Amino acid sequence: MGRNILESSLQYASFSIIFQVLFRCITFILNAFIVRTLGHDVLGIMNVRLLLLESTILFLSKEPLLKACLTNTKSHNWPQVINLIWISVPISTLLSMCLAYVWLNLLSPVDDVFHTQYKWGCFSIALSCIIEQCTQSVVLVVQSFCFVKLKIVLETLYVLTRTTIFVCLVIHDPNTAIGAFSIAQIVSALVLCLSYFVFFAWYIPELKMNNKKEQTNSKLFNDMKDFPFESVLDFFPGVMKNDNNLLNKDLCVLTMSFAKQSIVKQILTEGEKYVMTISPVMTFTQQAMYDIVNNLGSLAARFIFRPVEESAYFYFTQMVQRDVSVKNQNQKSISESASVLKQLCNVIVSFGLVIFVFGQSYSYTLLYLYGGRNLVNNVLPVTLLKFHCFAIILLAINGVTEGFVFATMSNKQLDRYNYMMVLFSMIFLIVSYVLTILLGPVGFIIANCINMLARIFHSLHYISNMYKNSSYSPLQGLKPSLKFIGILLISSYFTKLSEDYFLPSSIFMHIAVGAVFFLLTLAVWALDNKELLKVGYGKLRKK
Question: Where in the chain are the domains?
Fold first, then answer.
């Protein structure tokens, strides 16, 4: 492929951040609407119980296959890859049937007034997941051939469709909110699926016409001489001509490695929700309040760290070869990837530290502005958010370092790490259950921090060993400069004074003080990273 992998990865991260901001804004407004209109129980059932069912089905059926099929897309045998990615449909069907039964019959029951709607909610989640899996072959092609804007546009359309349908139905009849949620899930999944296939039904004939021309003015058709699909039917299994086996053995082995890993990663990612769902630790109302604060505290992770992690994973899979030592790889690619990893570490650690420092003095302010005095009358939400600010630093480091590890490990290393992840998961579940009994919802956050620290230490050990006999030291990016640490300490001291002195009487003055020290912090960081900013500015000007 002639496309610039680094440029496309950066572009995807940028658009993903914008999409995540839009999605989170819609979600927060929607949550506020639900709490004020319908109450906390409904929010707890939808946001914790039903969305946990959705994330479990989608992650386990999609993640392993998509990650394996994104590896080294330049040398793909596309008929084999398309056949493999479609296995996600029967897998999601089987998972949906099993998990829907568990959610309906084995978990703690919902109140009688919600039972019928909850039953249809479980069925609708299962059906929408199966529909969404039918798009995975197209999604794989979209990512492999860098259709960055298309993916973001259609995901935005998906979110807007789901939200609009839900709000309209709830306004019409507030008593059927979970039913409205069910209808919105199915319709939005159908819209997403049809949109992908309709686009390529138009795009493929247009591409054929443009390939016959010597030049094209459209960026949409540039560097697409290697596009292997002749018809939209080629996205379905068994349609493309294939002289080899139906499936690629190496990709199947890699998929199995990622499957083991995905089960463990899902438990680690959604562990607190599984503990809430399986054991009666908290009521639906308490779960809803925890979910609100958890989402607010995870803004940075969802807006920035996750898109960066996804783009970094794709970038490193294309630049660094598995099962090959650093010395025996293309040194230009290795040098560029080591530099990118170092700069990524620098940026995410700096960002995480800024959030931690300012979060200690502005958690109350943020919650007050979002939910009013009723939300901050109890000290628990403020305490939860302050703990989240520390967890964000660990989330930032773990996201990038673990993304690099997964992108470069061999199959054997992935298998070994899977066993470690099983150990991490068992410890995490036990610790989270015990700490939740002792400390309440704060225990979930502390357990997550312990788990992430263990994963970070493993990733750092792997990266250090990988580059130990080379001239590259990407982990140096994790060490902030003394100037930056100094301005953070000064900002922490004065913003805490501002909270004690100004906040009771003037929230505006407290925010103004924070803005001043935030700008000073950014200025010091910019001075420390002039070269990085010059490169970024140069790319923007060129674009």
Answer: 1-258, 270-474, 480-543
